[in-house]
Write a structure and sequence with these properties.
11 helices; mainly alpha; homodimer; 73% helix; 209 residues; Arc Repressor Mutant, subunit A; 0% strand; DNA-binding
DNA sequence: GCTTTATGTGACCTGGTGGTCACAATTAGA
DNA sequence: TCTAATTGTGACCACCAGGTCACATAAAGC
């Protein structure tokens, strides 16, 4: 947690520091992000920084926390009727919402992306390992439920599929920004439909609907 | 390319340095790998290192090249009858071979894994960008061919699927070593079958075979 | 044996990192 | 207004990175 000194700061200064830091962690992974650049771009002294934050990790966790909070408030209304929806329709909603968030807050998406790649670093273990496993557990529960409801075949390896769905969900953003578009538009919606359709029916030509 | 001095070295010394370097790049990404650790673990002087290699990148590329060569000689006989096989059977063969290689050469697998995550770094651009796009292009061609042959439905986004197949192919190793086993065994073969079956038919319960 | 060429070596350089600290400036309280 | 507490500051620290270089050692040619 940042020190009191930080929260006593005038709002605009606090927001400046925060946004500069977000930018830094979006451009560079945790280990490559530089406190020197952050203080430089914020126009504050190095010493001041350490009056606001305990250390680099303190700042990083603060931003992650802020990011998680904003994502939750953003996503919650977009994902409706979780229990009522068909599994594949729900999956569609989730991917749509996640992509929309990523397009609207590309810096947050970048931070998340770095974090996923930084695995096996200490930082990862102390933060996202929980969340990623959490994500996996979420899809795992979803899959098991869908199997019970007869929407998903019961002969699949739930854990493996949960892993890949989590993975792909996280990689979608990169795919879109790299190959398709960096705006949330009709094309993107169509691609999501395509993708969910693949998850549902596979690639095989033999039994297409 | 390493300097002549390196190739004039007695074989055992050359192999020692190489294996220490492979180990270092397996443990750490390119930017985090340390020349100091390499020379330390090899028992050679820093100055000697720079008589063998131009710089860090020179060593890294040398190892990548060695790795690629070994992978090719390893995989080639394992993937047979490329043009004759059914698309999904071919995919199965590829995944099987790739996994087997990764299990047999876990350090190479780790290096590759770091590299994929290091994207947008200079190193990535100058090395794997070719190979990854190459990988994508490979699957893309495979998919298009399979569509022509009527094995894969024609209403899919080839590029997107090629991207995800490449991605998943590269992530499989991590999944297995993390959640299943670090030996190539029957369980693994079964999982591969499961996975290919998913790619082929999807998750839907409605039209299972 | 002597000379020249090829190797080996580690102190040293520059430049970066995260983090500290004695001190200056400001603000708050009385 | 004088004092005490809070906040701002940048030189500085220890450490590590990749890379260099003058010099020591060894091998090769004659």
């Amino acid at each position: 947690m940042p020190k009191d000194t930080f929260f006593n700061l005038p709002l605009d200064k606090r927001e400046l520091i925060t946004s500069v830091a977000v930018d830094e962690f979006a451009r560079h992974s945790y280990s490559h992000a530089s406190i020197n650049r952050i203080v430089g771009n914020s126009g504050i002294a190095k010493g001041s920084f350490y009056q606001y934050f305990e250390d680099k990790q303190d700042l990083f966790f603060y931003i992650l926390q802020k990011m998680a909070a904003e994502k939750i408030t953003y996503l919650t209304p977009l994902i409706q009727n979780v229990s009522e929806l068909d599994f594949f329709e729900l999956l569609r909603q989730i991917h749509k919402a996640a992509l929309k968030f990523a397009m609207e807050y590309p810096q947050y998406a970048a931070i998340g992306s770095h974090l996923l790649k930084d695995r096996e670093s200490k930082i990862y273990r102390e933060t996202i390992s929980t969340n990623f496993s959490g994500g996996m557990e979420f899809y795992r529960a979803l899959l098991e439920d869908a199997i019970k409801r007869g929407q998903v075949r019961q002969d699949i390896d739930v854990q493996m599929l949960a892993y890949f769905i989590t993975l792909i969900n996280n990689s979608m953003v990169e795919y879109y920004t790299e190959y398709v578009s960096d705006q949330f538009d009709e094309t993107m919606l169509a691609s999501i439909d395509q993708f969910i359709n693949f998850i549902e029916h596979g690639l095989s030509a033999s039994k297409t609907d």
